[in-house]
Amino acid sequence: MVELRLSGVRKEYDGVTALNDVSLRVADGEFFTLVGPSGCGKTTTLRAIAGFEDLTAGTVRFGDREMAGVPPEERGVGLVFQNYALFPHMTVAENVGYGLRFRDPPGAMTDEERVLDLLELVDLDGFEGRDPDELSGGQQQRVALARALAPGPDLLLLDEPMSALDARLRDDLRTQVSRIQSDLGITTVYVTHDQEEALAISDRVAVMNDGRIEQVGRPEDVYRRPESRFVAEFVGENNLFSGETRAHETRGSLVAVRGHEFLVPGSTADSVTFCVRPEALRLGGGENAFSATVETVEFLGEAFRVHLDWDGKPITLRVPEAPDDEGVRVGFDPDDVHVIDGGTADIVEQR
Ligand code: ADP
Ligand code: MG
After folding, report:
1. What is the CATH architecture assignment of 237-340?
2. Where is the ABC transporter domain (predicted)?
3. What's the complex ipTM?
């Protein structure tokens, strides 16, 4: 297994900057996810790691080894893509066995034993004689995963492997990928545009936007403490508020948003942007309360998602019970506020 390090990686295609100074470190055995909207540079990052791209600037290191000039087939990387890309004229066993051609050194097991072992790992024992077109999309992806793992790579790279599957299969495959990764302890870089999937599956995530990394952290840290407006809005749902500080109190600042004063801890700046998660908003008021109108109510199973209109500003909350009336009071605890701009950390940084 291996530690992976990207430093100042830049990739330009005549005029288009696909990657703009990407630096990250993936620990040995870690499940690391790149998440971001389409076109933000996720696939280009994976291709840079796998060795399919000449970098405009920057370095990729596997452990102590600088990879410039090392061709893809010598990098010890296993790849799985969105489209299953199995060889249609080969059986499941032949597809997985194909991956063994790159095994070096051959190892203790025969090729046949190794194929059966890999199929067992991906829960496809008994499928060795099937053709790819006899398998579901999820099963085909598991064969692709077994094939990628066959040569015993140090690093596993997965590019949106679930995006062509329907929701149920995606869930199953997600659980399996997670189990297999932790059983093998293989360093893994996973790519998805689906922030929910990223939070569910990863040890750490890097949120990408427009060729840059916006934030790296554990799923719960990125969710609870987004460092930018982009991350706050892309990861989960969020309510963003921007306003001017009117006064300072011991417990925080009084910030005026649309003529309404909210108590916001953790900020001393004149202008403040803060966010409040939908599950932190409560019906019935509380300390930081305001009045709004119910627009729509969606039943989610474990909760209701309520879309409110606050004098033209949309507000989303998640509550255990649907509101009875159209006009509601909503509030949030000052402790549930997270400051994005104008926080005390920003002020320290500016000095
Ligand atoms: P993602 O995988 O996050 O959707 P990509 O890494 O595929 O994003 O693309 C990042 C940016 O680089 C996009 O603007 C895309 O159009 C551009 N790009 C990717 N590959 C090429 C290429 N071969 N030639 C020109 N532009 C490219
Ligand atoms: Mg992509």
Report:
1. Beta Barrel (2.40)
2. 4-235
3. 0.98
